[in-house]
Design brief:
The complex is a heterodimer of chains A (about 110) and B (about 110). With about 110 residues, chain A is mainly beta. Chain A contains no helices and 11 strands. Chain A has strands at about 5, 10-15, 20-25, 30-35, 45-50, 55, 65-70, 75-80, 85-95, 100, 105-110. The chains are: A mainly beta (about 110), B mainly beta (about 110).
């Protein structure tokens, strides 16, 4: 009965590789988000999709590309990974922009 | 522009003592206000929220927060700290375009036995 789930939980990869993180929510929410949490725990929004349409696109390198195949899924693809991409990535969802519910996070380490 | 300030990146209290975590925000419109808790290696969990109505809101685990418009504050309190309260706490605010949340930098709460 997981509300917001992310896979994988941990991701260790080499610089220059391409990787994807998947997110699914079973709450019936219309909006999904990707956040990046750095080593100092600072949380910054990256993207937001509402009913499969991109509504928030913060200043993020275009190596990061979100994809929302349907309302319940929001995936994040990262090309040419760099050391600075190491962080925890959180997916979240909300209904009509109200309370956001977060996934458990994906811990990405780029070597 | 919206901003959220959490005073004190680290707060340490003794078990049984009062917990007070401070949050101030700037907003040009009536905000929605939230507190989230993050336990080690976990995601964020909603503690409580203020949208409209009563300015004193109660959340889970005995926490509460009071929205004070005149002070643009939304401080989080708990009368008696428990060891299990040790975690990172984040204040967040959203405005009319409430798809966008702004988070504070977090306060790490340490509870001493």
């Amino acid at each position: 009965d997981t509300a917001v789930s992310q896979t994988p939980k941990y991701l260790v990869t080499q610089m220059g590789n391409d990787k994807s993180i998947k997110c699914e929510q079973n709450l019936g929410h219309d909006t999904m988000y990707w956040y990046k949490q750095d080593s100092k725990k600072f949380l910054k929004i990256m993207f937001s999709y509402n009913n499969k349409e991109l509504i928030i696109n913060e200043t993020v390198p275009n190596r990061f590309s979100p994809k929302s195949p349907d309302k319940a899924h929001l995936n994040l693809h990262i090309n040419s990974l760099e050391l600075g991409d190491s962080a925890v990535y959180f997916c979240a969802s909300s209904q009509e922009g109200k309370t956001q519910y977060f996934g458990p996070g994906t811990r990405l380490l780029v070597l | 522009a919206q901003s959220v300030t959490q005073l004190g990146s680290h707060v340490s209290v003794s078990e049984g003592a009062l917990v007070l975590l401070r949050c101030n925000y700037s907003s040009s419109v009536p905000p929605y206000l939230f507190w989230y808790v993050q336990y080690p290696n976990q995601g964020l969990q909603l503690l409580l929220k203020y949208t409209t109505g009563a300015t004193l809101v109660k959340g889970i685990n005995g926490f509460e927060a009071e929205f004070k418009k005149s002070e643009t504050s939304f401080h989080l309190t708990k009368p008696s700290a428990h060891m299990s309260d040790a975690a990172e706490y984040f204040c967040a605010v959203s405005e009319g375009d409430f798809n966008k949340f702004y988070f504070g930098s977090g306060t790490k709460l340490n509870v001493k036995p």
